[in-house]
Amino acid sequence: MRIITRPILSWALYDWANSTFATTVMAGFFPVFFKGYWSAGSPVTESTFQLGAANSLGSLVIMVLAPVLGAIADRGGARKRLLLFFALLGMVMTGSLYSVERGEWATAALLYVLASIGFAGANVFYDSLIVAVAPREKLDLISALGFSLGYLGGGLLFAVNVSMTLWPSVFGLADAAQAVRVSFLMVACWWAVFSVPLMLFVHERPAPASDVGAAVRSGWHQLMDTFHHVRRLRNLWLLLIAYWFYIDAVNTVIRMALDYGLSLGFKAQTLIVALLITQFVGFPAALLFGRLGERFGAKTGVFIAIAVYVAVTLDAMVMHRVADFYVLAVVIGLVQGGIQSLSRSLYASMIPPDKSGEFFGFYNMLGKFAAVLGPALMGVLSVLTGSPRLSLLAVVALLLIGAAFLSFVNAARGREEAAGA
């Protein structure tokens, strides 16, 4: 049987498309530009707090919307339409960052919040569509394919964007600041172009309700039913709680790593190159984690990744050299895609296939609620203690709590519970 079909590749290419936002904008240029351009003149602890608040606000909104959106999608058969709506919101807001002038940190933060809502909202429906293209026994590999293409696509465009900032005159640009602003436009265009295959070649199973208004009303009523349904699936519920905590640490590292490095006095160009290394290491590593999950189980792979993250975070608290930051970038690249892809495939294997939209709504809700806590806690601890290093204690704590809950998850029993639901 041919594993990589046109629908599977088209689905995975959306990761190639939207990962440029996660890389160039969220993890790369936005934190650097926010601190040095839009928040120019503010103390480092204050700009860290502002960035953490912007990240948390966007996550809070999608946390509230995600489960309802998933329920609506399943009731109305509208996953692709809602994915397109939120993706367009993300694209337009990202492109609009081009026009924000120096010192306008509040405007930049607002556009970033809206773009983050679009990015995360679209992912609710993108994740739920995996059951429409992948056979259950291949979920680990197909999920890993998406993340690996995301790392490669995001890394390729980010490499071009970094080159633009290093040698702006070669690209006909005035300076590095203009290069960063043009990069926001390029992300929006890349995101749009590579979303087209999913819209054309991924076909979702039609749902009973076809009227969008009726779908909205029934979606709200279904939300509480979904919550009670999830609670009855004991192992799935434990997995969601575990995911809630440990993915917070992952999202916090992604969103706040460059800000942390800047607060330690490292140069922005050095940090961006380190992030680029993470992207290209992450491409093959995500595929390797897919194989690891297939051989030893997704749960084991997630445990390995959590252990590496704990070690990396503890090391980051005491590092002083730029070389240490590069080493950490390589190590994070080895596990970042793995923990994301295996978490998604483990969860997908433990849910009723006909309710994937609403269940992935809860999945994304808990992931984004965790991202509400992480950046905000780092920002608050940084202000209260006056030390960016001590703010990383929040990351370690959340990783350990997540691992503790994951230890109680029985994946095989969880699949049996889903089959009988």
Sequence of secondary-structure elements = HHHHHHHHHHHHHHHH
CATH third-level topology: Growth Hormone, Chain: A
Globular, elongated, flat, extended or rod-shaped: what is the shape?
globular
Largest sheet: none
Number of domains: 1
CATH H-tier superfamily: MFS general substrate transporter like domains
- Under the CATH scheme, the architecture is Up-down Bundle
Count of runs of 4 or more consecutive helical residues: 16
Structural class category: mainly alpha
CATH class: Mainly Alpha
Report the mean per-residue pLDDT as an integer. 82
Integer-rounded radius of gyration: 20 Å
Model regions low in confidence, pLDDT < 50 over at least 5 residues = none
Note the beta-strand portion: under 5%
Number of strands: 0
Distance between the termini: 29 Å
In percent, how helical is the residue content?
A: over 70%
Walk me through the structure:
The protein is an all-alpha fold. It has a single domain (6-419), classed as Up-down Bundle (Growth Hormone, Chain: A). It is built from 16 helices and no strands. The longest helix is centred in the N-terminal third of the chain and has 33 residues, at 6-38. The mean pLDDT is 82.
